[in-house]
Specification:
This protein is α+β, with helices and mostly antiparallel strands. The chain contains four helices and three strands; from the N terminus they run H-E-H-E-H-E-H. Helix 2 packs antiparallel against helix 3. The termini are far apart. One of its GO terms (cellular component) is ribosome.
Length: about 130
């Protein structure tokens, strides 16, 4: 009883999400039709079977937030379905996909210098400069 209600609600939500997504995708790519998949690795394959890691390597995904561009095809679709929980897929034109895939992550080590290090002697203070 409750299972069928939950299932029908989830089907309605999925169909409304896909219709709104297709409407927004068609408005953004109105001049050309989408011909490629832009695949972005969202979750890590650590702890998963080696077949999942090998599938990601076959897609060309090695780092988190890395995006690759693949043309439509049966092989690519099968690979995406095998790792669908780990990736985000967008349908784009080739030109849009190249521009989006070329975006790189911000550079930097993530370390901010905060001044004197513990146990590092007296050092130079702002008043001495």
């Amino acid at each position: 009883m409750f299972g069928s209600r939950i299932l029908s609600n989830s089907v309605r939500q999925i169909s409304s999400n896909t219709s709104s997504a297709s409407a927004s995708a068609s408005s953004s790519t109105s001049s050309a039709t989408a011909t490629h998949h832009l695949i972005t690795l969202i979750r890590s394959p650590i702890g998963l079977p080696s077949s999942s890691r090998l599938t990601l390597e076959a897609l060309g995904l090695f780092r988190l937030r890395q995006a690759v561009l693949h043309p439509y095809g049966e092989t690519t679709a099968g690979r995406i379905l095998r790792v669908k929980e780990l990736v985000h897929v967008s349908n784009v034109t080739e030109a849009e996909g190249k521009k989006l895939a070329a975006r790189s992550r911000s550079q930097g080590s993530g370390i901010e210098y905060s001044g004197r290090v513990y146990g590092g002697g007296k050092g130079i203070y702002q008043a001495q400069i």
